[in-house]
Amino acid sequence: MPPPPLQPGRFELSDSVKDPAREGSLDAPFRHPIAWRDDAYYDLEKVEAEMQRQFDVCHTCRRCFNLCDSFPRLFDAIDESPTGELDSVPKAAYGKVAEACTLCDMCFLTKCPYVPPHPFDIDIPHLILRYRAAKRRAGEVEFVREQLGKTDRNGKLAKPVARLANWATARENTPLRKLLEAIAQIDAEAELPKYHSKTATDRLKAPIPPNPAGPAFGLRKVALYATCFVDYNEPDTAVAAARVLALQGVEVQLVYPECCGMPQLEAGHLDDVAGRAERVAAHFASWIENGYDVVALTASCGLMMKFEWPLLLPESAAVKRLSGATRDISEYVVELSRAYGLAEGLMPVEGGVTVHHACHARAQNMGAKSAEMLRLIPDTRVELVERCSGHGGTFGVMKATHPVARKVGRPAARQVAAKGQENLCSDCPLACKHLGQLLSAETSPDAAASPRQAHPIEILARAYAL
Fold first, then answer.
1. Strand pairing of 30-31 and 251-255?
2. Model confidence, pTM
3. Where are the domains of the chain?
4. What's the chain's Rg over C-alpha atoms?
5. What share of the chain is helix, strand, coil (3-state, %, to 5)?
6. CA distance 228 to 254
7. What is the DSSP letter of 186?
């Protein structure tokens, strides 16, 4: 049978506010293309005027008070101002609001009733993005965050000295971590990613042959986008994904041209992100032309490819085509199960699984696919936690913001602890590690009592004894 059409459920992309706009209507929300080529986009006076307009709407609503630290900072600044209104809040306070934003998109996606097509036209994450881009053009660049964001360079440099790099940056190595904190302002208590001498690209250089007895044999082909984090820091995730897909009969090729640019997006370096989008889309064009689906292994990268890149380059046919061809790994396995069924051999996972539904997975508007995928495992209890982990990339490791990341993540950690499961997974590997650290430090002093952490596809691979 031919493969079913790929029809992702997504919010629309548009360059104009729809009319008529009806508050409380069922019209699909949409986002404007990002006008990063326009000089007016970086005009700080205009940006702050737009921040004042949108923040004033937030002040009158306040539904988003418990999502992150940005909104409490805004509302506290207003409540403590001379007039109790936004007009007496100094513009300098806007920077504190922007600092706490991790671009998780939850306010836009889950809380705000005033996103387009509503005439209030509220989009706080992309407003913060514009503010950071304007500040960047004005010369405000954080050196350490810039260096941490060079993930491909860092991974290549660390690869030949992975054991030494991991020893030097381990939290248990207190003297060196205190020195790193003093020099680079990287919090000594933050768990840092580990590096590997054999990357995912190395380990999957020879593709795993597809299982001839798999239900999707001869029907599906996948170009597996490793992502920088999986390639350099979590290669087991790529191997697990390749093995699971190959067992279903899917032909799998690991493809990793370069990082998607999420760290650069968070820093407002939009021309850099657009360049990456063009190059990666061009690299995948021939794969898509030859019938390959593109599968991303981390939620943030999937979000970039599906949504952020088309907003940066709405005129690019290659970017649009890549967006339409891209799936999250859990989303893809669920799609396979519905179209063809899954290969036999799944065994229960002892102790059950708690799935943290990461913000960047939720922002893809596809549903809780990791939980749905793991519920395909027989006789296994699967619980879902839908609350921000608080990590947010470099936000979770810098001394200035790590305490805020812990503060925001504690409610999610408490929910995970209440589930009492022996396994914890997340669509975002950094979120999973952050929650694991919070569980050990704040919920359970005994680190051995913390749940085993993994990517959802690794748990499925374990259920297959792969």
1. unpaired
2. 0.90
3. 12-137, 143-184, 200-338, 345-463
4. 22
5. 50, 10, 40
6. 12
7. B
**Which tokens hold the place of 333?**
């396995």
Handedness of CA 211, 215, 217, 220 (dihedral sign): negative
| Cross-strand partners of 186 | 398
For residue 136, give the 3-state DSSP assignment: helix
Q: Which amino acid is at 358?
A: A
Q: Rounded to an integer, what distance in angstroms lies between the CA atom of residue 186 and that of residue 399?
A: 5
Bin 20: left if φ > 0, else alpha if -120 < ψ < 50, else beta. beta
Topology adopted by domain 345-463: Rossmann fold (3.40.50)
Distance CA 329, CA 457 (A): 7
Task: Using DSSP, state whether 333 is helix, strand or coil.
Answer: helix
Residue 334, both tokens: 């669920």
What is the spatial distance between Cα 466 and Cα 464, in angstroms, rounded to a whole number? 5
Please tell me the distance from the alpha carbon of residue 94 to that of residue 211, in angstroms, as a whole number: 55
Entry field: residues in the chain:
466
Residue 384 is classified by DSSP as E
Cα distance from N-terminal residue to C-terminal residue, the chain: 28
Tens of pLDDT, residues 335-388: 999 999 999 999 999 999 999 999 999 999 899 999 999 999 999 999 999 998
8 A C-beta contact, residue 409 and residue 389:
yes
Local structure of 161: helix, strand or coil: helix
| Residue given tokens 């600092």 in the structure block | 99
